[in-house]
Design goal:
The complex is a heterohexamer, with 3 copies of chain A (113 residues) and 3 copies of chain B (446 residues). By secondary structure, chain A is of the alpha+beta class. Helices cover 19% and strands 42% of the residues of chain A. Chain A contains 2 helices and 7 strands; from the N terminus they run βαββββαββ. Chain A has helices at residues 13-22, 71-82; strands at residues 2-9, 29-37, 43-47, 50-54, 57-66, 91-96, 99-102. In chain A, strand 3 and strand 4 form a beta hairpin. In chain A, helix 1 packs antiparallel against helix 2 (71-82). The longest helix of chain A has 12 residues, at 71-82. With 446 residues, chain B is mainly alpha-helical. Chain B has 16 helices and 2 strands. Chain B has a two-stranded antiparallel ribbon. In chain B, helix 3 packs parallel to helix 5, helix 4 packs across helix 5 (138-157) and helix 8 (205-223) runs antiparallel to helix 13 (352-370). The radius of gyration of chain B is 21 Å and the shape is globular. Classes of the chains: A alpha+beta (113), B mainly alpha (446). Chains in contact: A-B, A-D, A-E, A-F, B-C, B-D, B-F, C-D, C-E, C-F, D-E, E-F. The interface between B and C is large, with 62 and 62 residues. Strand 7 (99-102) of chain A pairs antiparallel with strand 6 (91-96) of chain E. Bound molecules: adenosine-5'-diphosphate (3 copies). One adenosine-5'-diphosphate sits between chains F (7, 36-40, 57, 59, 87-91) and E (27-30, 63-66, 102, 104, 113).
Chain lengths: 113, 446, 446, 446, 113, 113
């Protein structure tokens, strides 16, 4: 079982979710509002003539837990749905997961997804 | 807390004593008291307008200024900032009826202060009329003047926020209102020497704005810089709301200063609106040129600068005067805030000096230039063949700056000894809402 | 929904029938109708003030009270809380012109109720003048009284929020306004027996605040506790804004009750401001001593307590009376909220009883103590040699408590049968905004 | 920015030239100028009321409408939305005193436009009185009319938000106020042909609401759809606050249109409140039936629809008329917003046409039906034996629709060439606050 | 050392925390507001008569780092505290953690918890 | 490739970021607002005279993905930048990451960072 964490641009969420649903990959996902810092330059905000650089930009983090064989498919979908080609498109991180449990039923492992 | 209490008790005793003493000195019965018997021909129209005007100026402080300042503050200091306006208004409301009104508008004692013969509004009855406002009940005049005193104290807070102890502010409101506002108010409007000398101040350019602006500057220097000296408004929708309410209430402030519902109020009204709109736009375009983008905060800041600058001139200048005053107020205030401040590096958190001080001085001077006898025979400025007026204005300004600056220094110095000015640095970092009040402005989760 | 509809239809028919019936009984032509022909000397000044006063009291409910209550509510119940005030104002506005005005201010029927001869404002014309306010158009008087009825209903909601069905509140507004507010209003101000008996209530201590306070208490007990009985304001900047608007609007409420722009309005105005400021400060210091920290919520709560307590006294007492009333209002309300409530353990969500009920009773009694004939010849209190007044006040209070309490109980009992009082527990947990209205107060993400 | 500047400079020159030209044409001395000498019997009561009414209408735009629209907008477009109202008010304030007042209320030139003899308020003095308002200072009348012009421009913005360039809006405010509002205002109120023809519009149904509504529709079509065409209010507490302030200020708008403090103001006041409450409730019940849940947004939308619909009728109809107008306004506006809009698929972001346009037309027509001579002898509607009135109303409406529609098209067409209408699509996506102003509405973290 | 990530319903937080404290399992935890998407249908919001489906529901994510032997105990507690039996109760994810450090002291490994 | 999750005090963010940048370690990071519960006692809030204990304190969670050799360096920087010495300074958690992908380019592994 793997966990995919994707950091994407705010307005890409709907496309990504749609893409994953169509591809019939996701049974679910969890989204978190985060602020990201990276190559992408932040923007300048000016209040009363004084400049403030906002280096942390609003991003969304999508967490998806899925079975090993689905990972590559999911990555592909995210890649072409979340991509604008501009700096700041974000990252996808893949890590291993030992177990998953559905609270409602107590089911464990893959059937919990 | 304990310490503060004892201090407050002390203050109370002192003032009581003072009052007693003063009353002896004044043998003469308060002239207004007589006036009452004389003629009581209250005009219901003037009264209707002045009741509303009083309520409007009250609205400027609560919630007007509280929203304007609170929205500009950091989220973690929002409530403390709003509380400062609330305290200023409440404390002033009480002290004003105890001795404030009497010291500022009581029978003049050698041009310096009013006699406390009306402490606790002694002898004021439902029929009373103040000498300076012959067509409305004295109670309304008292209330109207009260709201001016209150907002002046509240204005100062903008320069001190995000780093001043709550107890220190409480003491400051009491002392500053008593020792700085009351005398200056008497000098200009209560029969004191500045008014006598002929300096023009229709609605409070010197008494309110220059006065508050200087106190702000001195305080900013004495209290010192904040740990985090940024000014990133935590909620600009609040700032806009506050600005709108200030603009709205300011009609009571300026047009109300005619003390009657007639042509002069009309002049003050249209001038106020014109200068304000002009200043909002001139600030907007100036910042558009010099810092790339036109902002809502710019419009709000410009509007306030315009309101301040037109205040002393509202009932004296004509529409052209209003246009020019507004135009300059927006531009000059913008530079005073962006350049001067960064040049000298004092931490006037919300630019009280940069806007109220600077625009106040500008307005007071330009009143001496544009005062048009056709609008109000009481004022004739440079452009209408009376260069001397400009000189009188200068004196009024200088005296106010000198006195307000000096006294503010002393008051803060004393408070520093009594309670100290700043909270522990960690309390400043976690925010004054948490450390001073144990409250949070927003509890949005769940 | 369906069920509610049919209930509403039924109500409509009932009231129509009732009106018809009543009209027959009253053969006498409405005296005011005559009065009109007699003399129409409208005073523009008084009219100007009363138009504004009416607008000010309207502002107290929308958005004033809605913000005050909405900010105190949990985020998930904010909109429902605000909606309750909105419904209260709208429903009352309609019912008031249909039969409310006539039942409360129509020609008195044996001291108990007004005759519905003015249903749908029959016979009221652009020239009409009400007998009780001889210098302003009757339409303004109608509007002014309307706003009082509306805010009284809205005030009650504060005790019911976070757990009452929306449809239940809709019914409650209709029934309570008709069966509780109208009679009491007539008894005190419309020529009914309480007023006749000489109990003093300048601007609505009994009619508005005690009345609402008791309804709040009874309702809190009948509706029962919330799942989560905490009171953690979700947005204190809203609470401050609401408080400021209430204070501002209250000048229309109290000074407007003079029904003219003159000295008496002045008295009511200055007393209102003084007592309010005093109460805000006394609550602040009390909580500073008893729960460690001075809070903004404390200032706001104290201010409201002061406004409530001075309401019946505003046009009767002198400035000293106002100071004392304010001082006590802040202290006593603080304890009623922190101690009494926890002692008896009822869930009066926003302390409507604790503040409006308690401070209302306090104010009504103290009016009987401090009423100063020098301010208003119509009132002479204990301190001015008329102990009997205190007794009359007590009667007014008792009758109001008894009647309002009993009727509120019956009304809620009936509603419980008709629509039920509480939503499903899960609907309460996810919040009434979502479950009752399908809306969210804030959509801040994205 | 540069480009914009040059455009603005050009505009200034043009208008200066135009004024010069026009003045020549008008040889006749401005009649009002004479009038002044004649009789100056200002009524303090009327003046008191009209000063306040003017301030109230100002409050409707800032912060009233800014909050109403800003709360409905997406979080990322909140400030830009509020800025549009601010710009509309400021720009109008300046242009109004430069030439606006004169073009609309100056001596009539063949029914089409006013003569610019009062450019820069020439010849208006502290004693001046306008011919159409004989009991108040002309300065107040000027200010009062100014606030109407300002809010009309601001209202339009609701249909354009979330996708219009800031510079485009700045130009639009200038051009639309000059080329659309001024003429129509003159035609209806300034002595122009629509007024002459006898069409009734008490407080601005055609001049303000239909006018703005049509401009909104045309603009929505020309500017095109937003990327994200949802309407999910980012902050409904702001919407409620705005609604409350609009309702409050509207008393100045409608009752103020009586231009005096008397019975007629009373009629307008009670009608306004009644229709508004009725519309709020009828919208609520309609949506309850047709889209399952009763919402706060429904109450607010209904209230605004009611305020709009009663505007032209306020001083003409009786209470029954107000009830019916309110009832229909709520129901019809609901369907125009939910059905018509989705049917034609234009992106009128905040339903300015759906509410102001539709309810405005409804109100204008019903004024021709319910106008009751007993309330105001100047108006007799269908129900009182004057079917012709309905026809006159129709003409007024048609002319307004035709002219406003055509001119708005031309103006936006020109702006499209000059500055372009829409920002880069990415700028729209990240939000106009960031892209146009470089500001964020909320900075709540830390 | 393991890391437990539990996605639960908003109003279950207090119960879960209480349960874990009583069971004497947690030395601490970190909570994040997230929005979840899964089997549970979102609700409809209607603004001006137009329907919007909210497919992402507010949830809370609890992160707990603990020693291997405590994991099962913790899972049990969460299971019976966070459970309502209705769709949307959430998930528990378990993954391996290499190291933990307490910033204040620099302690590493289990004693950092 | 490793992932560092650090829970720190709100006002330490700038120092930590500055430190990491100077040390030339980070190519980027992702920050999340969280609420933490642990040894550090919450504070008391009083509304209308009633006390409420706030046990969950606002914290920031920093996520940094980097190459194995940089981990220790990063930990050191965070340790001395985020430290106040008082309870509540927070934790650093280190876990293994299988892969990272840069959405913009599709690059995988270390070069995605
Ligand atoms: N080393 C990293 N660890 C964690 N998150 C990162 C890291 N580098 C980048 N991110 C996240 O990815 C987002 C996009 O990265 P950035 O370098 O700005 O653009 P790109 O991924 O296109 O090069 C950042 O805002 C940040 O949230
Ligand atoms: N595959 C997944 N990856 C990550 N989070 C998930 C996944 N599936 C569900 N979730 C989270 O768990 C929550 C509950 O899941 P859901 O399917 O709605 O109910 P249940 O767990 O009872 O079947 C979702 O809201 C989402 O936050
Ligand atoms: N076992 C844990 N699992 C996850 N997060 C934890 C754990 N223990 C502590 N934390 C996080 O670390 C923060 C600080 O921990 P705390 O015990 O309060 O102080 P210290 O780390 O100085 O002992 C907590 O607020 C919480 O966010």
């Amino acid at each position: 079982m793997k966990k995919i964490e994707a950091i994407i641009k705010l307005f890409k969420l709907d496309d990504v979710v749609a893409g994953l649903s169509e591809a019939g990959i996701v049974c679910g996902m969890t989204v978190t509002e985060v602020r990201g810092f990276g190559r992408q330059k932040g923007f300048i905000e000016v209040y009363r003539g004084k400049e403030y650089e906002v280096r942390f930009l609003p991003k969304l983090k999508i967490e998806i837990v899925l079975t090993d064989e689905l990972v590559e498919k999911a990555v592909d979908v995210i890649l072409n749905k979340a991509k604008t080609g501009e700096v700041g498109d974000g990252k996808i991180f893949i890590s291993d997961l030992e177990d998953a449990i559905r609270i409602r039923t107590g089911q464990r492992g893959e059937e919990a997804l | 807390m304990k310490r503060l209490m004892s201090i407050l008790v002390l203050l109370t005793l002192l003032c009581r004593g003072g009052l007693a003493l003063a009353e002896e000195q004044v043998s003469a019965p308060s002239t207004p008291a007589i006036a009452e018997q004389a003629e009581t021909k209250i005009d219901t129209g003037d009264t209707a307008w002045m009741i509303v005007a009083t309520a409007l100026v009250m609205l400027m402080t609560l919630p007007g200024l509280a929203l304007f300042y609170g929205g500009l503050a950091k989220r973690k200091d929002t409530l403390n900032t709003m509380t400062m306006s609330f305290i200023a208004y409440s404390v002033t409301s009480i002290l004003w009826i105890i001795y404030g009104y009497s010291f500022s508008f009581g029978p003049d004692l050698s041009g310096l202060i009013g006699a406390p013969v009306k402490a606790f509004l002694k002898d004021v009855t439902v029929k009373s009329i103040a000498e300076v406002a012959r067509t409305i009940p004295e109670y309304i005049f008292i209330g109207y003047q009260l709201t001016f005193a209150a907002i002046t104290v509240a204005l100062v807070s903008g320069a001190y926020i995000e780093r001043l102890k709550f107890s220190a502010w409480l003491l400051f409101s009491i002392l500053w209102m008593s020792l700085v506002y009351l005398p200056i108010c008497h000098w200009v409007w209560g029969g004191g020497f500045i008014g006598a000398l002929g300096a023009l101040d229709f609605a409070g350019g010197t008494v309110v704005h220059i006065n508050a602006g200087i106190a702000a500057l001195i305080g900013a220097l004495m209290i010192g810089k904040r740990k985090d000296t940024t000014l990133i408004p935590h909620n600009l929708t609040m700032v806009l709301t506050g600005t709108g309410l200030l603009w709205f209430g300011w009609f009571g402030f300026n047009a109300g200063s005619a003390l009657s519902a007639g042509g002069l109020a009309g002049v003050a009204f249209i001038n106020t609106n014109t200068a304000t709109a002009m200043a909002a736009l001139s600030w907007l375009f100036t910042e558009w040129i010099f810092s790339k983008k036109p902002t809502l905060l710019g419009l709000c800041s410009g509007a306030v600068a315009g309101l301040v600058a037109i205040t002393p001139a509202a009932g004296f200048v004509n529409i052209t005067g209003a246009l020019v005053i507004g135009l300059l107020a927006g531009i000059i205030s913008f530079f005073s805030v962006t350049k001067i401040k960064t040049l000298f590096g004092y931490d006037d958190t919300l630019d009280v000096f940069g806007i109220h001080g600077v625009a106040g001085i500008l307005g007071a001077l330009l009143t001496g230039v544009f005062a048009d006898p056709e609008m109000n025979e009481l004022g004739r400025g440079l452009l209408y063949g009376n260069p001397g007026q400009l000189y009188k204005q200068a004196i009024g300004i200088t005296v106010t700056i000198a006195y307000s600056g000096a006294m503010t220094f002393i008051i803060l110095f004393v408070i520093k000894i009594l309670t100290g000015l700043r909270p522990h640095v960690n309390d400043e970092i976690i925010g004054l809402d948490e450390s001073q009040h144990g409250e949070k402005a927003y509890n949005l989760h769940i």
